Amino acid sequence: MHPQCKLCDQPSTDVDHIVEIADGGAMWDHANWQPLCHPHHLTKTKQAARNRAARLAKQRRTEANEPSLAMRMWNQLP
To answer: What pLDDT is recorded for position 1?
Structure first.
């Protein structure tokens, strides 16, 4: 691991997962790691959580507007 934060060249204190584990990133894949200082790691992690929440909310809204399986079957009746 590198001794400097990848974003600001301050000493790195945290190992960041480039692709968040919650988003499907591999925990132990060294290619998915990058060194960050704690402030940059917090900022990146919070932004990833906000993006994930927005993506899930949009998915739920889309699913809520889709007719249920029962309604789709009902609509296919002659």
So the answer is: 54
Sign of CA pseudo-dihedral 44, 45, 50, 51: positive
Q: Are 13 and 38 in contact (CB under 8 A)?
A: yes
Distance CA 15, CA 5 (A): 9
18 touches 32 (CB < 8 A): yes
CB 12 within 8 A of CB 3: yes
53-63: pLDDT as tens digits: 999 888 888 87
Residue carrying the six token digits 């002659």 = 78
Distance of CA 41 to the CA centre of its chain: 14
